């Protein structure tokens, strides 16, 4: 069997001595140094992409080797400075963005903590008042028991006629009996309140008054202002993938106990009269920002209103005080506030448009003799926490677990 021919090996001739740079520690001519021009570097091009035009080579005619070397070093320093400047600009922008996010988080945390502390103080004051009332009642009961006289009951023979005294019932028993009769409110009164409240809330929502404060917190735009002895607040945010009527029905169908757990400033919710599925009368006991617990008899309703330009429908879910509770346990609060939901369309940053609901809260409140500036400050602090809890109860709880992340997207107005 013939022997295989020996393989030929190709040897690369060593580079010329003039091609080696004493300042570069390379051992292979295929590895360019940092001081060599960019045209020696290999560029990765995408398939079918046109070749990038090369920069004109620096003319080296008439220049010494030292001058060429200095020019290359100068150009390298300029490239390093430009890259360093771009890096600093990018870091500066990232730092500014992080500072803005940290500021928003700190503001939200501070508002939430302040609201919780204020709610805790209100509850402690209420507990102390009840304890004092309990002590007074216990003392009165002890005094009445000590002075009570028990009459001796003499046995009466069987068959002896018993004479019944025709006397009036005690006043306290009559008072208790009359209080047990539920009070009814006329349909005309309640439906007039519905129409008037809808008109007032829409007017407050579209008011062009210059607000005193207009913060933006987590996508919610807030406006606060004063007029005489009343102060006003409104806020708004767009939610995609939900309709105005659907949001109104969610608020209408929420369990009262769950609502009070989410909003502990609401102390009691008691339905007194129901007209239909969208209109009822209820007693509310709650603590508005900057005030102690107050109460009112409100008409709570969900009603349609004429939509504005650019909207297909508008629904109002609101409370309006129509009467004062008779027990006198808390002071009266005259309320006129609620939410206005509008079906509308918003444009996304990529130019596409999405259907959704613009949720807008609006309300008119009485100052009760307090400084409006103080109440506005309390309102601004409390509302930032209220809207986040509202969003969690009526928006986030209805997002499916397998949603693709689009449902919880929010747009800043």
Automatic annotation (TrEMBL):
The keyword Coiled coil applies. Residues 1-95 are annotated as: Disordered. Residues 113-147 form a coiled coil. Residues 1-11 have a biased composition (Basic residues). Keywords: Coiled coil. CDD domains: bZIP (cd14686). This is Unnamed protein product. The lineage of its organism: Eukaryota, Sar, Stramenopiles, Oomycota, Peronosporomycetes.
